[in-house]
Structure formats: C-alpha cells, structure tokens
Amino acid sequence: MRIAVIGTGYVGLVSGICYAELGHSVVCVDKDPDKLATLQAGGIPIYEPGLKELSAKGVAAGRLRYTGDLAEAVRDAELVVIAVGTPPLPSGEADLVYIDAAALEIADSLRAGAIVAVKSTVPVGTNERVQGLIRTRTTVPFDSVSLPEFLREGSAIRDTLEPDRVVIGAESREAAEKLASLHRPLTRNILITDLRSAELLKYASNAFLATKISLINEIANICEKVGADVSQVAEGMGLDRRIGPAFLQAGIGYGGSCFPKDTRALIQIAGHVAYDFKLLRSVVEVNREQRLNVVRKLETIFDGELRGKTVAVWGLSFKPNTDDVRESPALEIMRRLTEAGARVRAYDPVAMPNFRKLFGDEGVDWCDAAEEAASGADALCLLTEWEEFAREDLHKLQTILKRPILIDGRNLFKEEDLKGTSFVYYSIGRPSLN
Ligand code: NAD
C-alpha cells in the first residue's frame, strides 16, 4: 500500500516506520524543520529503543522517506494517516487545531478512492468533522476511518508490530476491510466498529487504566495507615483473572502525554452531553494528590523545613525508557521542593534536556550520573524506575549521601536490597524501614 503519515511524533513516526517494515511504501510528513532535518539525516528526534535502526532499514530499502511537502506525499497515497498532536486546552478539551489544519491541507491533494485514517486520539465526532472539512475543499470520493493508537512509549515498536488489538472504526465496509488486511499480519484481534465507538473506545481504555492506577494508589495510602503492604495486597488482587496484575503498581501516579490529557478530555466529552463523570473526576484528583506524597514525606522527615536542604532526584521522565517529560510527576515535585527553598540535584539517563526546557534551571543542579546527584544530599528521591537505578550499590550509596534517607516513589527496591544498610527507607504503601 502507498501510505502517507502526517505528523512524525511518537505515534506517526513509529507507525510509519512499522508500516514500511511490513513492506509498504511510506512517506512521513512533518512541519517541524528541525525534526525533519534530523530524520532526513538518519537520526530520530525522540528516544525510542530500536527505532533508529528500523528507520534506517526502511530508508535503505527504498520503502520509507521523510518530507515536509504534505501535498506531494498525499497525492499518490492510497491511505493517509493523520497522527498530529491533540494537546489539551486549558479547559481540558482536546485542541483540534492541528487536526483541522491537516484535514484542510490533505483535501487539496487527496486522490479519488483514498482512505483518510485518524490515528490521533480525538473527541467523539472528530472523524465526521474531518470528513466535513475535506469536503469543503474537494469533491473526490474518499473514506474516513478511525484508527486509534494504543502503543506505549518505551515499547512502541513491539506494541505496534504485536498489538493486543487493532480497532478500526468505519462507515464503509470496504474501507474497513482494506485496513483490516493491512493490519492482519500483526494480530488476529481486529475489531471493526462504527466511527464514534472507535473514538470513544480509546478514551475509555485510558480512563480504565488510569482508574486502576488511582485505585491501587489509594489502597497504598490506606496500607500506610493500617500497617499493610500494598505490594502483597496488589499481588493477591492481581492473581484474580478478573482483575489481572497489570497497572497495579503503587507509586506517585501516572503522567505522560496521554493519561492526564485523555482523562480530562473524556470528562469534557461527557460534560458536553450533560453527563458528570464523577468517577473519572476522582481518578484525576487522586492522581494529582498522589505525586505530593513524596514532598509530604520529606516535610515529615525534616520537621516541615525544606529550606536549605539538598534533595537528590533520580528520574525525570514520566516512566522509564522514554525521554517524554510531559506531565511527569517530577515537574510538580521539583517545583514544590525548589519553591520551599530546597536545592535539587537531578539526574535522568535520557530525559534531562527535555525536562530542563520545561522546568528551567532555578534551584537545580543537573548531574551527569546517579551517584553525582546523590553526592552530599540530605535525602534521595527516586521518581522514575529506570533499570540502572535498581542496579545501584546501596551500601556505597549510603556513604555518598550526607544522610542515608531514601524515598522510593516507585517501590523499586525490596526489603532485602536494603539489608545491612543504614538507610531510612520510605516507599509507597509499604512499611518504612529503620
Ligand atoms: P507529538 O506532539 O509528539 O507529534 C505530533 C507531530 O505532528 C509533531 O511532530 C508536529 O510537528 C506534527 N504536525 C502537526 N501538524 C502537522 C501538519 N499539518 N503536517 C505535518 N506535521 C504536523 O504527538 P504524539 O505523542 O505522536 O501524539 C499524536 C496523537 O496520538 C495524539 O492525539 C496522542 O494523544 C495520540 N497518542 C499518543 C500516544 C503516545 O504514547 N505518545 C499513544 C497513543 C495515542
């Protein structure tokens, strides 16, 4: 198939590269000249394991190329995939400005019989809106398909090449079948729905996962008060097949470019039809509070006085294996710490440059290694569970810190890891040690 992918963010880039890997002829389009220059020079503008190699393979095979010329890319395409951003407006609603602009641009060069698929996460009715916008500019026949994306940053290639399911929302059976054939090499689980159900299903899935996270975090908070251990509670819950073990890790809450944005957008979608989504409002509220758990623990340890303290922070991305810092809990935690007068020594294996752009330099020393960040600090807070932190020698670490205080916001360490050390260890929903 000849495919044009509009937008080379996490979703568009990974999808485009993977479609090329399947043998299709793919052109990826982006407006951002810096991203484009990186891609055309053989680089990858995001951190995603394995992506650079797969892109190089597609380019070398002549199946993949990158361009800034949308019209040229769309002119020949049998399938046009829209994968532009849908960032939140201050109200929480998804901003459709990039979707609308892409739709209008596509219209001017769309070939007859093409399929326009929206992969971006969009409010219910957006595919119909895209159709309407295209029809204001062209009379060529085309089909609209909603093709929601479920990949996770950090394992994006695997999630794309071996997805749990592919959802295709379509009005036309023929268009749905064409896209089903495109994705059949990846999975047997292909669900064909109507346009609106596909759009809502994406939000509903993220709302469910966010709910699971906030639920286990509230259970963790209760565990701390009643002297239970949330990792044991979660293990027992997860053995029930109706519940399952995924997304039951207590911690400082979810972040990233999807869950915070999509939960708030779904609350707005419900609000537009006069439905108060009470459960999801609570999920968002619990999550907002949960990240402050780390700050509260520090305040308790230091009798409410953080001024003049040095706090080491390990991990800035919203989860490991990504450089994405959008809505990362570390942003709010570090803001609170620096506002309270603490000095932060921060380290992350890949996300530091992105984090710095959002956070600025006020009150922070950026460090090149985990141990450098810990050096001389009054306490250490682990905010992202990068694998390299789990390998740290805690016996050595306790000698580097000024005081051996460790707040593990992701429950990365186990009791046996701490054995023989003098660490005062706090985690989330588990008994503190020493
Ligand atoms: P992103 O912001 O990383 O990338 C969007 C890209 O689109 C940017 O590079 C931008 O320059 C480009 N763009 C915007 N308008 C354009 C135009 N008219 N022509 C060409 N390029 C244009 O976004 P993302 O994280 O890839 O997310 C894209 C969508 O997918 C969002 O709706 C998001 O909610 C959804 N989604 C994201 C993830 C994820 O893990 N990031 C997962 C599932 C779904």
What key attributes describe this structure?
434 residues; alpha/beta; Rossmann fold; N-(1-d-carboxylethyl)-l-norvaline Dehydrogenase, domain 2; 3 domains; 8-stranded mixed sheet; 6-stranded parallel sheet; 19 helices; 44% helix; globular; binds nicotinamide-adenine-dinucleotide
Beta-strand content bin: 5-15%
Under CATH at level 1, the class of the largest domain stands as: Alpha Beta
> Residue-averaged pLDDT, rounded?
97
Counting helices, strands and paired strands, the structural category is alpha/beta
The largest pleated sheet is described as: 8 strands, mixed
Poorly predicted ranges: none
Q: Which shape, going by the Cα principal axes?
A: globular
Bound molecules: nicotinamide-adenine-dinucleotide
Rg estimate, integer Å? 23 Å
Q: Count the DSSP helices.
A: 19
Kindly report the name of the CATH homologous superfamily of the largest domain.
NAD(P)-binding Rossmann-like Domain
Report how far the terminal alpha carbons are from each other.
Answer: 62 Å
CATH topology of the largest domain: Rossmann fold
Number of domains: 3
- Spatial strand sequence of the major β-sheet: 3-2-1-4-5-6-7-8
| Residues in helix, % | 40-55%
The CATH architecture classification of the largest domain is: 3-Layer(aba) Sandwich
- Strand tally is 14
Keywords: NAD, Oxidoreductase
InterPro entries: 6-PGluconate_DH-like_C_sf, NAD(P)-bd_dom_sf, UDP-Glc/GDP-Man, UDP-Glc/GDP-Man_DH_C, UDP-Glc/GDP-Man_DH_C_sf, UDP-Glc/GDP-Man_DH_dimer, UDP-Glc/GDP-Man_DH_N, UDPglc_DH_bac
Enzyme class: oxidoreductase
Protein name: UDP-glucose 6-dehydrogenase
